Please model this.
Amino acid sequence: MLTLPTTPLDGCLTVIAAWGVIGLAGLLRPHSVRFVGRVLFPLSAVCGLALAVVAARGIGAPATHAVLLIGLPDLPLHLRSDALACLFLTMLGAATTGISLFAGGYFRQGHGAAPGLLCLQYHIFLASMGCVLLADDAYAFMVAWESMALSSYFLVTTQHRLAEIRRAGFIYLLIAHLGALAILLSFGVLQGGSWQFTFDSMRAAHLSPPWATAAFLLALLGFGAKAGLVPLHVWLPEAHPAAPSPVSALMSGVMLKTAVYGVLRVSFDLLGAPPWWWGLVALGVGLGSAFYGVIFTAVQTDMKRLLAWSSIENIGIVFAGLGLAIIFHGFGMGALAALALIASLYHCLNHACMKSLLFLGTGAVLHATGERNLGKLGGLIHRMPWVAWLTLIGALAIAGLPPLNGFVSEWLLLQAFLFAGDVPRAFVDMLLPIGAAIVALCTALAGYAMVKFYGVIFLGQPREPTLAGAQDAGMLERLGLVWLAAGCVALGLFPVQVIGQLNVVTHSLLGAALADPTAHWWLLAPAVARGAAYGPLVFLLVSAVVIVLTLLAVRMFYHRRVRRAPPWDCGFARLDARMQDSAEGFGQPIRHIFQPFFLIDRELPTAFDSKPRYRMSVADRIWRFGYEPVGQAVRRMAELVTVLQQGRISTYLLYSFVTLLVLLALVL
Amino acid sequence: MSPLNLTTQALEIIAAIAAAPLFVGWVNQCRAWLQNRSAPSVLQPYRGIRKLFHKDAVLAERASPLFRIAPYMVFGAMVLAAAIIPSMGTRLPLTVAADSIALVGLLATARMFMSLAAMDVGTAFGTLGARREMMVGFLAEPALLMVIFVAALISQTTSLAAIAEHLSSQTLALYPSLAFTAVAFTLVLLAENARIPVDNPATHLELTMIHEAMLLEYSARHLALMEWAAALKLFNYVCIGVALFVPWGVATESQGPLGLLVSVPVLALKLCGAGAGLAVIETVSAKLRVFRAPELMATAFLFAVLGLLVHLLLGA
Model:
C-alpha cells in the first residue's frame, strides 16, 4: 500500500526520484522508440503534473527542511522547500508536463544518440533542476547546478557529428562555467567568515555593505550568464537552435528561470535587505537585454535562433521587474515592490508556457519539413493546422496581446513603472518612466518579430516544393502543445488567482504584499494601481459576443456566398512563392532603423553578374568585439606555448636537465 | 450599473458603429473643399460599404481560415475599443474590461491580425503592406502608450474613463506636458490611420501604400468589414484624443441624464472640428517616403517622452 508523502518537500523529492528512475529505465531498452516514447515520456509528464500539483499546494505551506544523508562525509545535503522554491517547482512541473508529452512523440531513431540515452540525460536534467530549486546549502546547490549544466550540455550536443553543434555546445559549456565560478565566489563571500555553507548560516551572516554588494554583483554575473543577460547572452542563440526542440523548450522555458530563482534567493533571502541602487543595476541590465534581444529577434532568419533571441528579451523584462522591485524595496515602498516582483514572477510563468509552446511548435515544423531556415518554409497552416493554430496562441501571447497571458505581466509591470511617483531620488523618478517607454517599445517590437515568425512559417505560399508533403504533429505532440497553449490562455484569463499565489511568495521574500489582490475573482485591480482595472474575462466575453453578433448579422442580412479564385495581387498573373517577403526582407525595416546595433555584412550583385547573388548576414557586435578578441588572445598564447612543446623526447629531457641545473644553482 | 450608465454604454457603441463612416465622409468632404474639388456626399462611405456587402465574396485559392476570420476579429476589436473609450460619458460599465494600456493592447491585436491576414495569401503586396504596417505600428504603439502615460500620471490612474473625468473636472488650464503629447498623439493618429503623410488613403499606388496593400486580397463582405473597421479605428483615435485633450462636455456621474443629452451634440461638434483639422493637415502636407515614416514616429515618441519629462519636472 502506497502512503502519500505528507509534506510538499517529500512530494517534490518523490517526483525527482521518480524522474531519476524513469531516466534509468530508458537504459533498459535504449533503442526502442516505442518503449521510451510511448511509455517513459508520458510517465515523466505524469510526474511533472504531480510535481506541479504538490508544489502549488506547497506555496502556502510553511517552509520545511530536510537533511539528506548522501554527500561528502560531514557535509550532508540540506534541502528546503519554501514559497519561492515551490513556485518555481510548480513552473518546472507544469512546463514539463507539456514538454514531456511532446517529447514522447518527438524523439525518433536517427537523432544522434539513442532514445534511451536521451531519456536518461533528459531526466537527469529535470531532476537536477528540481534539486537546484530545493537546495538549502551551497554545496548541494552547486552540485545540482553543475549537473544541470552538464546534462543539458549533452542534450545540446545530441547531434554531435555536426561541427557547428559541437561549437555551440562548447560555447554553452564555457559560459556556464564562467557563471558557475562567479556563483561559487558569491557563495564564498556570502558565508561571511563562518565557513558554514548552509543557506541558514548565510542568512545569519551579516555582511558589511561592500561585501554584500560584491556578493550580489557576483551572483548577478553568475546567474546572469545562465539567464542570458547581455553581454553574457552569446551562448543562447547558439545552444538553443542546436538542441532538440523539447530540450530547447526546457532550457528556455525552465532552465533560464532557475537563474532568476538564484538571483531572487541571493538578493532577497540570503542577503536580506538589498539597497535600492542594486535594483538600478538589475533594471539597467534587464532593460538593455530586453532591447538588445528584441531587435536581434526581429532580424533572425533561423526560427529557433529567433526564439532564442526572444528569450533574451523576455529574461531582460523579468530582470527589469526584479530590479524595480529591489528599488522600491530599498525605498521602503512595500506595495509597489510587491507589484513589481509579482509582475516579474508572472512573466517567468508566462514565458515558461509561451516559449516552450513556441519551441515545441518549431520542433513539429522541423520534423515535418526538416527545415529550420525561415526562407524555406511557408504556408504550413494548410498542412499542419494543429501546430499552426496552437502556435498562433503562443505567438500572440508572447507579443503581449490581451486577453492572453503575456499582456498580464506587461500590464502589471507598466503599472509598477507608472505609479513609482514618490521615489525619494529625483533622478530615479525621472528614469523610471523612460524604463516604461523601453518596455513598451520592446513589447511592440516583439509583436513585429512574432508577425514575422508566424507569417513566414505558417502563412503565405510554401517556399519549397517539398513542403507540400509536410505532416501535422502526432497525437502526443498535439497533447503537449494543447497543454501549454491552455496554460497561456489560463494564465491570461485568471490572473487574480495566480496573483493570489504569487502574493504569498512576495510576502515571504519582501515582507510586503499587495493588499487584498483577490477582491474580485474576475477583475485584476491592484489597489496600488489606483482605480485601474483589467478584466480579461469580460474582455474576452465582450469581444466574443461582438464577433459572433457581427458574423450572424452579416449572414442574416446579406448572404454567405464565397467563390474561390486565383489571388488578385493588383492583376499580376504570374505570382510565385519567391515574390513574398523572405525573412530577411521582413526584417529589413528593423535593420534599417537600428543599423548601429548590428554588424551587417552585405554582398550585392552588380549589374553584370550573370548569376546574381545577394548575401546578407547580421552579426552581433558583442561577439565580434567582446568575445573574439579574447578567443584570439587565448589562441595566440597557446601558439606561443607551442614553441616549448616540440613533441621530441630529447627536448623535454633538456628542459628537465635545465630545470635541475637552475634549482641546484639556487640551492647551492 | 444604473440604467443611465447602461444607456450611455449602448449609445456609445451604436453611435460609434453608425457614425464612423459618416466621420470618414466628413473628412473627405472637408478635404475636397480645401482642394477645390467638388465634394462627394458625406454618405458616400455608407454606399460603398453597402455595395460591398451585396457582392459575392471572392477568396484567393490559398486563403486559410485565418484570412476569413480576421475581418471579424478586427471589427470586433474596434467595437470593443469604442465601448471602452469615454466619448460621451465616463461611467461606462465596460471600462472594467480594459484600461488605457489594455486599449492599446486591443488596438495592437487588431493590427496583428490584419498583418497576419495580409501575409496569408502570400502575395508580394500583402507581405509588403504587413511589413510596413508593423514597422509603423511598433513605433506608434509605444508613442501612444507614452501619451497615455502622461495623462495617467496627471490623473494618477490608467483607467481612460477616470482620466477623462479627472481632466474634464479641471478648469481650463494649459498643461505644458499635454501640449507636447498632443503633438505626439496627432502624429500617431495620422500614422496609425494610414493618413498623409505616412500613407495615402486615396491611392492604390503600389509603392506608397500600406493599409490598402494589406486589403488587396479582400473583397465583398470581408472588405466591407475591414473598411468599416478602419473607419471605426479613425473614429476611436479621434475619440481618444478628445478624451485626453479636450474632455470638457463629457457626461460624468454627477450630471445625470442631462449630461448625456448635452454630451452628444458636444461630441458631434468636437468631431466636426477634428475632422476639419485632419483635412487641413492632410492638405498642407505631402506624403513622406516610407523610410521617412520611422523618423516621424520617432519624433512622436520623443515628443511624448518630452511631455513625460516636462510633467515630472514641472508637475503639470
Observations:
- Chain B touches chain A through 81 residues (CB under 8 Å).
- Residues 3-314 of chain B form one domain.
- Strands of chain B lie at 57-60.
